[in-house]
Amino acid sequence: MAGSKSLSLTSDRLSNYQRKSHTELNRRFSKIRLDIVRSGLHNTGLDPVSLPMKKYPLPLLLIIFVFAFAYQASAQHLFCTTRYSNTTAVIDTSTNQVVTSIPVGTFPVRIAMTPSKLKAFVSNGRSANMSVLDTVARTNIATIPLGQGPGEEAVTPDGARLFVVHQRGQHGLGCPVYVIDTATYAVLNIVYLPGNWLKDILFTPDGRFAYVANQSAGQVDVIDTTTYQVTTIPAGAGSRRLCISPTANRVYCANYIANTVTVVDTATKTLVANIPVGQRPRAIAMKSDGTEVYTANTRDGTVSVINTATLSVIATIPTGGVWPWELLISADGTKVFVTNTNSDSVSVINTATHTVTAVIPTGHGPFISQISPDQTKEYVSNARDTTVTVIDIPSLTVIATIPGVGSQPFDMAFGP
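Now predict its structure.
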């Protein structure tokens, strides 16, 4: 337009502009790559190479570049341990593709993120160590020696310490819980608990106490995270999995051999009740409003629903699958997702009616699952193949099967 001072760029000028921008970005921000911008443009449907015969006002170009960076910054990745590939696969959840696999130790079983999600800790069950991952660079940055058979782990709410329970007793001392500084990777303490098989660990929201499911001793052990003193609460044989109420006044423990759920008062650290459930209860979770606890009974193929006011079972729900191993509850408390390991499916339970509303096929041996932070997708690790199944929660349908994750995908955690 005659007399107009608005700036526009042809495709040739755009290429020249990109080269200059690339030089300037590298000069000022050595860690920013122009290919990130380009990948962002591709994801928006705008390819800087294929913009011939058009003119683009500079403000629009700046908006496009900003949007490209914002897109990349907002992209989330799912980190998945693969027990027989000895790697942690990184999945881009916007494309549902594996973008890299990070070598770790032998037989990686569990993964835990710091609250910032900038570091992940991978427990290597057969190499007696912990791999530390930089989740931004996606590299293995440290290896921490541990005892034999490290298993479940949890980071304190303030992100300062990592507690690692073990599944093997050592030197007649009992079964260790290693306490690690997440900044220096130094072992700060080793707390020995009775028996030779610890299974689960969680913290109270203030981080003051750690609760441990002691499978071999049939009890719940409570570690004071300030003094490292231990309180022992009798539970039932095969104490396996834990959950805590939203107000943190009670902890519930599924006892795999006793076929009960133990209820613990966290103020007094005493036993409140042992509630009979189905056969071989394992996974356990509570609704976000604290009114009901769900536990998956592996041998029965059922889920028991416990009313937390009466501490009684109010429903027993057949899952329609075989060997329900893991369960998750949606953040709004309306749905329970149960992985049926021996029938390659996920059952969805409506918490209002206590009925199964869908049985969704997965890969072979679905094991552990995670719901995306935005609550729109469930990711299921298929431990008997090399895939992860992606379920769209609104429609309750499979929208992707991610190949090439690694041999025996197992534990998962969301990172940046």
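The chain is about 10% helix and 50% strand.
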